[in-house]
Amino acid sequence: MKAITFQGKEKLSFETVTDPSIIQPTDVIVKVVLTAICGSDLHVYREHEKGLDYGTVMGHEFFGEVVEIGSAVTGLKKGDRVVSPFTTSCGVCYFCKIGLTCRCQQGQLYGWVEHGHGLHGAQAEYVRVPLADSTLVKSPEGLSEEQVLLTGDIFSTGYFCAENAGVRPGGRYVVLGCGPVGLMAILAAKIQGADEIWAVDSVPERMAIAQRYGAVAVDLSKTDAKQFILEQTNGIGADAVMEVVGNPSAQQLAFDVVRPGGIISSVGVHTANNFTFSPVDAYNKNITYKTGRCPARHYMSKLLPLLGDQQIDLSAIISHRLPLAQGVEGYRIFDQKLDKSLKIILHN
Ligand SMILES: NC(=O)c1ccc[n+]([C@@H]2O[C@H](COP(=O)([O-])OP(=O)(O)OC[C@H]3O[C@@H](n4cnc5c(N)ncnc54)[C@H](O)[C@@H]3O)[C@@H](O)[C@H]2O)c1
Ligand SMILES: [Zn+2]
Ligand SMILES: [Zn+2]
């Protein structure tokens, strides 16, 4: 089959690789209909996150059709249209039971193979899905394939970020980063009742969508965001800051604009070794810092019905729909924020 594989810093290849096959009886093989490029793929692409074997198939977001079934799979059949969260999960371990499916004791992240161990990704024609019964979700009727796809990672992650921020009506919030995930955090914070949100970025088209979703955009390139947000909150700071970037400058800004006693909810994937602020800085502001991978499988059960019930449209953030064969170019565009790129969807 054809797939996008990792070949080193900023080097990907669209090449022929071995077709995936059933390894465990609980596996299925899915024919990928739609996949997407995530900000998390950029950490790998830029080699800020290191360790991935060359030749690993990239990508962890997909919607597709079940084409092969392991002998122990009971809840799925060939032809089922399914979506996957970005990690696999068993559904029965301690962590799955408490809703932390991203830390499943048997879970794996798609698109991460290190020293020959791990799970290939979904930016391909086919993908192997371990623990398929508990990992995959059948696509509900009445939702577009794109809406369903976006729930497997970024809508769930944005929702998780807003929940961790303790969003409630009347609170004052900051979202740092208006990439696809930051925009989903704004949308989710609105769904959860936030009135006032300041959305910080420097990319005009991203800030324009943030405004459409009901936030006030703060342009980092023109405004001292720290000073502005402190002024807007009478010197107090925001009740919570959703940090959806994953770099030290955003981490420090989150610390600077959160109020004493407030929450920093970080879903940005950080690759620096240390916090920009110290334990005593955190102590002196009484802050709560919440972070981690989104337990997307847990959120999907709630958010897929919500999309239909509340007629939520996620498609405003999709900037490009490209064939898989143009995916390597898609990475270049997304990485360099060219051509007003936001969420890039790849189709087979
Ligand atoms: N925790 C999880 O489970 C999870 C899931 C998905 C994505 N992520 C992470 O979320 C982050 C965002 O993903 P994305 O797809 O939206 O990526 P993205 O790279 O498209 O978006 C990042 C945005 O942050 C902006 N930015 C850069 N520095 C900034 C700063 N100092 N202050 C404010 N904005 C700044 C950029 O202009 C960009 O628009 C990434 O780190 C990604 O790895 C985490
Ligand atoms: Zn992702
Ligand atoms: Zn589990």
TrEMBL record:
Domain Enoyl reductase (ER) span(s) in chain numbering: 8-346
Key words of the record: Metal-binding, Oxidoreductase, Zinc
Coiled-coil intervals: none
A UniProt-annotated Pfam family: ADH_N
Listed cofactors: Zn(2+)
Record flagged with keyword Zinc: yes
Superkingdom: Bacteria
TM regions (residue ranges): none
UniProt similarity note: Belongs to the zinc-containing alcohol dehydrogenase family.
Record's protein name: Alcohol dehydrogenase family protein
